[in-house]
Amino acid sequence: MLEENSLEECPIQPVVDIISGKWTSYVLWEIYNKNNHYGGITRSLPGISTRTLSTRLKMLEKNGIINRTVYDTNPPTVAYDLTKKRKRSCTDSNVYEKVV
Known about the structure:
Layout lengths: L3 H5 L4 H7 L4 H9 L5 H7 L5 H13 L3 E6 L5 E6 L1 H16 L1
Antiparallel strand pairs: 1-2
């Protein structure tokens, strides 16, 4: 049986809180697979609203999981990419999956 205090001290809880929102894992998967433009993500995830996608992208950027790059084009182009730390995490998890 888990004590209530042990749940509060769980080191992965902040990560779970961030990625547990509806659509968040799908958005991350699209960015990980190089589908990193807003329109491309929208087309790949039928059913996601523009408001939800915008909210998820802002939240992921705020929490340091993705980078947002604005290119000086007309109209402006925006691309999203995983931060270097998150790319390494994804690669490490892929190695783990191959072993298991």
